[in-house]
Structure formats: structure tokens, C-alpha cells
Amino acid sequence: MRFSSWFIGRPIATSLLMVSMLGTGLAVYPLLPVAPLPEADLPTIQVTTQLPEASPETIASSVTQPLERQFGEIPGITQMTSVSTLG
Description:
Layout: H1 2-9, H2 11-28, H3 56-72
């Protein structure tokens, strides 16, 4: 109670203290070393294809291989995986 009573008894000093803290915060904010929007490089492509009643070999030859060839031309791709299943 003693700590808060000083601020309650001196409202003008409390207001000036708060204004000075706000001014200091606004003045120092541009100097913070944190980027407002950090760069995020997410090199992930996920594609799902379906060919009803097709065998894994058919899907791999008629769907997966053409897609892998096209995606392989995109610069910056370092790894590519694919899974072909029944249906």
C-alpha cells in the first residue's frame, strides 16, 4: 500500500512519469534489432493426385514422372520425394 499511495497522492507526477516512459519507448522502438516481418523460406511443395483404380506403376509413369520433371525445373529445389500407391 505504501508504494501505490505515493502514485495516488501525486497524480501529476505519475502522469509525467508515464508520458516520459511512453516517449522513451517510442524513441527506442526503431532501434530494436527485431524484423517486423521476418523472412521465411519454406521450400515445400506438396501435391496429391488420384487416378482411380490405377496400379502404382501406372500412376508413377503417367502422373508422377511428368510432375517431377516439371517441378525439377524450379530453381532452388534440393530434394524431391514421391509415393505412388494403389488407387
